[in-house]
Design goal:
By secondary structure, the chain is an alpha/beta fold. The strands form two sheets. It has a five-stranded parallel sheet with strand order 1-2-3-4-5. Strands 6-7 form a two-stranded antiparallel ribbon. Strand 2, helix 3 and strand 3 form a beta-alpha-beta unit. Helix 1 runs parallel beside helix 2 and helix 2 packs parallel to helix 3.
């Protein structure tokens, strides 16, 4: 939706016609709109069965827009660490927590625990990555209470390179967790190429 708010609303309305029967529709402006434009967009979508994701760049702007809306809100790009998650607690009904933004598995696990405590729906994902990131996100997603799992995302499906056996793959809208130890995948070290640095 990250163009003019009027164009965004028109695209959402057209998209909803083709998505009738969808369990959940999330419309994402990726922080593009000013607060004033976002207020107008969510007012125009007041009766649409959608979640509004990151309409403005900052948590404070999103909070102000959410105060004027009956639609559920999702925060994404503005959530960079646990402190941001705490600041955004009253600005969202759901969150997208990204592994690289939070700095690894332990920090995102802490963020997941906070979101669970506060009853926020969530998706655990990343903006990029391959088999190892996909396995980590799948394992963490499986630890979220089902009522709070907003959705799943297999980032490795967006790349051609395969560096690990056993990573989750999409099949009919679902994926199976890896069953091996640790993250459940076996990294193909030859596929990684020569190391940049040895210790």
């Amino acid at each position: 939706m990250g163009t003019s708010w009027r164009d965004g609303v028109e695209r959402v309305e057209a998209g909803l016609q083709g998505l009738s029967g969808a369990d959940r529709v999330i419309v994402d402006a990726n922080g593009y709109w000013s607060q004033a434009d976002a207020v107008q967009a969510v007012a125009a979508l007041a009766q649409a069965p959608v979640y509004v994701e990151q309409p403005c760049a900052t948590i404070d702007e999103c909070r102000q827009v959410r105060k004027r809306s009956t639609r559920p809100f999702v925060l994404d790009e503005s959530l960079t660490d646990a402190a941001a998650l705490e600041r955004g607690r009253d600005a969202a009904d759901a969150v997208r927590l990204k592994l690289s933004q939070f700095g690894g598995i332990s920090p995102i696990r802490h963020a997941r625990d906070l979101a669970v405590r506060w009853g926020l729906q969530m998706t655990l994902e990343d903006s990029g990555g391959g088999d190892v990131v996909t396995a980590a996100m799948a394992q963490l997603s499986a630890s979220v209470p089902p009522r709070l799992l907003l959705g799943g995302f297999l980032v490795g499906e967006m790349v051609n390179e395969r560096i690990a056996d056993g990573a989750p793959r999409a099949a009919g809208g679902t994926a199976r967790l890896p069953e091996g130890p640790g993250l459940g995948v076996e990294v193909d070290e030859a596929a990684l190429g020569e190391p940049v640095l040895r210790f």
